Amino acid sequence: MIESKITSEGQTTLPKAVMEALGVEAGDRIRYIIHEGEVRTRPVLLIDRLYGAIQYDGPPITLDDMDRAISGAVGQH
Q1: Most buried residue, 10, 19, 39, 54, by most Cβ within 10 Å?
Q2: Does residue 43 belong to any structural domain of this protein?
Q3: Does 5 reside within a domain?
Q4: pTM listed for this prediction
Q5: Residue 61 and residue 64: Cα distance in Å, rounded?
Q6: Is there a contact between 32 and 39 (Cβ–Cβ < 8 Å)?
Q7: In a domain, 10, yes or no
Q8: Per-residue pLDDT, 49
């Protein structure tokens, strides 16, 4: 169990283990989700942090290829 103290301003410092578990670092944002008496914390993922997360080693894909793939997926529903 990990604890932290809440200041009179309602602020707290996230312990290092919590930051590591969330995959956040100083300056990042987190989101609080309140549901049925529990509070869950999630990192706010910014698009620039996602760059390079998915690797593609195949041949280049054109915009026409993407349009055809999207049209095919939409037509299946």
Answers
A1: 19
A2: yes
A3: no
A4: 0.57
A5: 8
A6: yes
A7: no
A8: 65
Question: What is the rounded CA–CA span in Å between residue 71 and residue 8?
Answer: 55
Tokens of 27: 């300056």
Token pair belonging to 54: 């998915």
- Terminal-to-terminal C-alpha distance of the chain: 46
Residue-number span of the structural domain to which 23 is assigned: 16-75
pLDDT tens digit sequence for 20-29 = 999 999 999 9
Compute the distance between CA of residue 44 and CA of residue 77 in angstroms, rounded to an integer.
31
- Altogether, the residues listed in the chain come to a count of 77
Please state, in angstroms and as integers, the Cα–Cα distance from residue 12 to each residue in 7, 53, 66, following that order.
Answer: 6, 31, 46
pLDDT higher than threshold 80 for residue 51: no
Measure the CA–CA gap between 66 and 22, rounded to whole angstroms. Answer: 33
* Cα–Cα dist 32/43, whole Å: 9
Q: Amino acid identity, residue 51?
A: Y
As a whole number of angstroms, the distance between CA 18 and CA 13 comes to: 10
Is residue 64 in a domain?
yes
